[in-house]
């Protein structure tokens, strides 16, 4: 069949006989530590359509003759060590094929330590559907030519040192499903023009928790703009969102993962939006904003696993919705009143509870002793009184590990 799958080599270099298999169409050596330099002899395998060299311990330069493998549709060089290799040079080698006819549909260079700026020639790979350039040493901005990748479905530029503005040409990628630009230092303004044709978009991630200060990026869309997509994953953070963003958000009723940490939102959380996403959402993080007002108490979140509403200005009684959540962080708000006596029934699988820095009063309910999955409890800086339930202290003593 002309295919090789995961041969278990014990040598530290590629076997010479491999380069004689000129009819080979698929070669997957991923996860086998062969070490040494990238063998230029691989270019003799001109029939290859699929080449996976993920995590082989390769070092040094990527030979320019790789661009002669014009039938390649899948190429992964992920998690090798090509430190010092310029991504511009790699891209230049891809133009070796006659009339730029390289057929690449999937390219994964993530974690391979390539460095440099994305060249304008990135837009020449018209057949590309999946591009992963995450965890590299890239800097500079995204070239406008990215909009020429009309077949692109996934784009990952995460964990780099990229900056500058995000081009509006991104909005031309009508086949895009997943976009990950996280852990960079973007600036400028994102408008509806950046998303205008992204009808298939399901996941977007633009945030940077590593930097000491938020990005100089503003997501600012018009109030009357109705996005053409329905997201499952929305992870925007450490940047500013304009007033129109909240209208956009209310149109997203199929969300499963929501994180809007540190986006400078000052508003109440609409009950209508919460009720629309409540049946399928698993993770909800709206922490480090200026959300205010009370939260509805009647909602049910059957799939919710993690809630983080900490560091806001929310008030009223604790919003302990009936759910199987295991992580609940409501710290540094203005919640008041007692901790509900039926906490163990409302959230029976809770393992992390942080309601510190609020205005809670009353005693700690004995029902907390029934929560056998509980690992972390933080109640500091409230107006609670009385003693911690003796039954729980006995339980802790029985299960403490030295």
From TrEMBL:
<keyword id="KW-0675">Receptor</keyword>
<keyword id="KW-0812">Transmembrane</keyword>
<dbReference type="InterPro" id="IPR001611">
    <property type="entry name" value="Leu-rich_rpt"/>
</dbReference>
<dbReference type="InterPro" id="IPR003591">
    <property type="entry name" value="Leu-rich_rpt_typical-subtyp"/>
</dbReference>
<keyword id="KW-0472">Membrane</keyword>
<keyword id="KW-0433">Leucine-rich repeat</keyword>
<keyword id="KW-1003">Cell membrane</keyword>
<comment type="similarity">
    <text>Belongs to the RLP family.</text>
</comment>
<feature type="domain" description="Disease resistance R13L4/SHOC-2-like LRR">
    <location>
        <begin position="104"/>
        <end position="258"/>
    </location>
</feature>
<dbReference type="Pfam" id="PF00560">
    <property type="entry name" value="LRR_1"/>
</dbReference>
<keyword id="KW-0732">Signal</keyword>
<dbReference type="InterPro" id="IPR032675">
    <property type="entry name" value="LRR_dom_sf"/>
</dbReference>
<dbReference type="Pfam" id="PF23598">
    <property type="entry name" value="LRR_14"/>
</dbReference>
<protein>
    <recommendedName>
        <fullName>Disease resistance R13L4/SHOC-2-like LRR domain-containing protein</fullName>
    </recommendedName>
</protein>
<keyword id="KW-1133">Transmembrane helix</keyword>
<keyword id="KW-0325">Glycoprotein</keyword>
<dbReference type="InterPro" id="IPR046956">
    <property type="entry name" value="RLP23-like"/>
</dbReference>
<keyword id="KW-0677">Repeat</keyword>
<dbReference type="InterPro" id="IPR055414">
    <property type="entry name" value="LRR_R13L4/SHOC2-like"/>
</dbReference>
<dbReference type="GO" id="GO:0005886">
    <property type="term" value="C:plasma membrane"/>
</dbReference>
């Amino acid at each position: 069949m002309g295919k090789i799958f995961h041969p278990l080599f014990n040598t530290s270099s590629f076997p010479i006989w491999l380069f004689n298999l000129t009819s080979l169409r698929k070669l997957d050596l991923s996860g086998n530590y062969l070490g040494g330099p990238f063998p230029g002899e691989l270019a003799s395998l001109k029939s290859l359509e699929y080449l996976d060299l993920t995590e082989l311990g390769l070092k040094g330069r990527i030979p320019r003759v790789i661009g002669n493998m014009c039938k390649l549709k899948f190429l992964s060089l992920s998690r090798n060590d090509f430190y010092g290799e310029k991504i511009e040079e790699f891209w230049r080698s891809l133009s070796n094929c006659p009339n730029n006819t390289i057929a690449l549909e999937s390219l994964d260079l993530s974690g391979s330590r390539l460095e440099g700026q994305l060249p304008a020639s990135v837009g020449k790979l018209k057949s590309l559907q999946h591009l992963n350039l995450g965890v590299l040493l890239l800097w500079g901005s995204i070239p406008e030519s990215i909009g020429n990748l009309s077949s692109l479905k996934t784009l990952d530029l995460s964990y780099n040192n990229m900056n500058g503005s995000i081009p509006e040409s991104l909005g031309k990628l009508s086949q895009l499903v997943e976009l990950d630009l996280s852990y960079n230092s973007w600036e400028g303004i994102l408008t509806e023009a950046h998303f205008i044709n992204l009808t298939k978009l399901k996941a977007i991630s633009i945030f940077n928790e590593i930097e000491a200060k938020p990005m100089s990026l503003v997501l600012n869309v018009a109030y009357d703009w109705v996005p053409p997509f329905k997201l499952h994953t929305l992870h925007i953070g450490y940047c500013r969102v304009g007033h129109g963003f909240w209208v956009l958000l209310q149109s997203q009723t199929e969300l499963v993962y929501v994180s809007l940490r540190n986006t400078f939102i000052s508003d109440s959380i609409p009950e209508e939006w919460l009720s629309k996403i409540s049946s399928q959402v698993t993770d909800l993080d709206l922490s480090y904003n200026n959300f205010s007002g009370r939260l509805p108490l009647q909602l049910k979140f059957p799939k919710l696993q993690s809630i983080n509403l900490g560091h806001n200005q929310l008030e009223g009684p604790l919003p302990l919705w009936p759910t199987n959540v295991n992580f609940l962080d409501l710290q540094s708000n203005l919640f008041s009143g007692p901790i509900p006596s039926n906490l163990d029934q409302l959230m029976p699988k809770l393992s992390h509870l942080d309601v510190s820095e609020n205005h809670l009063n009353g005693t700690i309910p004995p029902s907390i002793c029934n929560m056998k999955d509980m690992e972390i409890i933080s109640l500091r800086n409230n107006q609670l009184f009385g003693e911690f339930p003796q039954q729980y202290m006995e339980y802790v003593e029985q299960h403490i590990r030295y």
